[in-house]
Structure formats: structure tokens, C-alpha cells
Amino acid sequence: MLLMRLCTRALAARPLKLAKNGCPISLRISGSGNARRHGGIALILTALAAMQWTGPQLASAVLPQSAPINTPDSVRQNRAQASAGGRNSSEPPPPLDPILAEASSLADKGMASEAERRVRQYLADHPDSASAHFLLGHILFREIQANARLGSHLALQAKGPMGGVKVLGENSSDGKDRDEKAKASLAEFTAGAKYRVPTAADLKVVAFDYVLLDDYLDADKWLTKMLEWAPNDSDGWYHLGRTKYSENRFAEAITSFQQCLQLDPKNVKAEDNLGLSFAGLGRNDEAAATYRQAIAWQAQSILKNPGPYIDVGSLLIEENRPQNALTFLLQATEIAPRDSRAHELLGKAYSRLEDLPKAQAELEKATELSPQTPSLHCMLAPVYRKQGLAEKAKIEFDRCAAMTGSHSTPETPRR
Prior knowledge:
Radius of gyration: 23 Å
Order of helices and strands: EEEHHHHHHHHHHHHHHHHHH
Helix content: 55-70%
Strand order of the largest sheet: 1-2-3
Strand content: under 5%
Shape: globular
Low-confidence stretches: 1-15, 17-46, 48-88, 151-171, 407-414
Number of helices: 18
Largest sheet: 3 strands, antiparallel
Oligomer: single chain
């Protein structure tokens, strides 16, 4: 049984520390990330913009009106239980103090900043409250989620070039704020773990925090542990698959997506990502069949996911079948006209077909939607040059060189 201990070393964000059979295992935030940057921010931010508030399952209508308040005695009791092996982490957490329940309710209503303020006030008087620390960890993550949703909304509302529209993660300041918030969230889970074993829901947010910090190794570890406690969490299996994919552990990603699909049949995102994992192993025929299955599942849906259309189009281009790719990619742009990846691949297909004016139009659109992606400028430059647009070609070649050398935002895979 895992026992929770607090790391005593002073770090910018303290690590969450587990002890197994009395042997401590320290898992800390890596400043540079244990995995190379491989579109990790996209892995979570796109999901955050769409997912509902999944904070701790603590406050609800069934919460007792006179929930007990954590006292030093109850804290010592929790600590003693942890030392003896702890309660089963799959069990529901203890009921919240009414003050914390109100804060959780505020977070449910989208008032995360006010919820944070109230929990911090509570912690000033109850610094050893595990529930308060865990709740604050969830709320801080919820603030990142709210900003991601706002950024997604602003991006969709933007007209023409996105000048002046601020989207989460678009610049270094946004990224720094997000990272600091994720570290602060992790620090609260670490603090709470000193007094009580976290729940599966807690570990899921811990894993998401690590993904935001590009630390896939620890994200993988905590999602895996969470799923030991909550094996029927289909969303957890989906995100474990995405994490395995980002680690280039494609076979394990396939297993995770298949488990997700067993629990949530006809999950288009999971089927699409299963195809990506097959493609990662070079199993292109299986990948193509999986993409087409995902397309078939949503044939009657009003709102469609463009992912499978984009991915089968990309695969066909890789197989030097650009004419066949056009059908799927044009459908993708109809479904999601502001998806830069779809326009990029259309530009690539038209370029292969020597239809340079259309290639130019699609690559210009992709660059407008994702101006900080260096590869788009590198692709657009030769298209200009082939058409005799020397001045425009030079500008794009210069941008390509400058952005590639300055570590600009890399192209990130669509999630």
C-alpha cells in the first residue's frame, strides 16, 4: 500500500512523494521536462477547453450540513492511518468542511479565483487540512482550464489574422503563467499528501499538471497509478494513451486506447488516436482502417471531429496519393475551417499536384491561423519562389530561418 510522505527539501514546487513499503520514492517537477517537447501543451490545452469541471468529488448536494472540520487530532489520526497503510484510495474522500464545500461550489460555477481566495483563507487557520490543500490543487488546475477555454473561444471568434487576440500558450508570458500555476497546483497536492492519501481524482489532476510541464514520465506514472484505483475511467485511459503516444511508446498507447474503447465504444477521439498509434509503428493499413472507422461512426452526427479526416489525409500524402487525400482534407476544412493543420496538409497536397495557386492559398491560411509555427513559413517560401514571387519568398525564407533558430513554438500535433 502506498503511503504519502512530504518532501522536506526546498524546491520551487515541492515534489509529490510516495513511499512504498517504507521506501520513499520522490517524483519532482523537472524544470526542463523529462520528455522532449512534442506537442505536450496541445495534449492538455485542447482537452481542457472542451472538458467539464472535473474537480474533486467532494462538494455536492449530498454533503452533510455539519461536515467535520479537520482538527490537529483528526490530522494526527489521518497521519497514523497513512503510516499503518492508509485507507483504500478508491474510497470516497471524507466530507468537506462547509467553508470548503462552499469554495468547491464556487469553482463548480466558474468562480475559481474567488474559490481560491476562500480556500487560502481557510488554510491560514487550518494549514494541516489535507482536504483544503487537495481542493486548492484542483482549483488552481481549474484556473488553467478556464483560461484554456477562454483562449479557445477567442481563437474561434478571431476574424482574419489573429493580431491582438491573446490565446493561452501563444506567447512566453502565457506559458510561464501556466507553468507556475501547474507547479503551484502540484505543491498543494504534495502538502495535502502529508496528511492523507490522495484519491484517484487527485492523481488525475497531478498527472495533467505534469503534462502541462512537459514531464510525460511522471504524467505516465500518475495516470497509471490513478487507473489502478479507478480502472473504469475511460477518460483516464484516453489521456494515458495520449501520454504514451507523446513518449513514442506506441504499442502501449494502442493498449490504452483499446481499453478506453472497451469502456466507451465509438469514442471517435480514441479511435482516431488509436490510428495514430498504429501509424507510429508503421502499421499503415491498420491506421487507415481505424481512421475510416472513426469517420463512419460520426457519419450521422451534426458536429463532427475533423481529426480522422485530417489523419487519413496525412497518411495518403505520405503514401504519395495527394489526389485521394484532397477529398478528406476538404471535408476537414468544412468541419473545422480554423484548423491550421487541415489547411497545411491541403497546401502540401496541392503542391504535390503542382497546383501552386491553391497551395499558396491554403498555406497562407494555415500561416494566418498558426503564425508561430516555423514549418509553415518554410513550406510557403518555395511555393512563392516557384511562382516567381521572389520578394515574398525571401520574407518567408528569412522567417523560417529566424524562427527555427530562435526555438519558436514548434508545430504541435492536433489532439
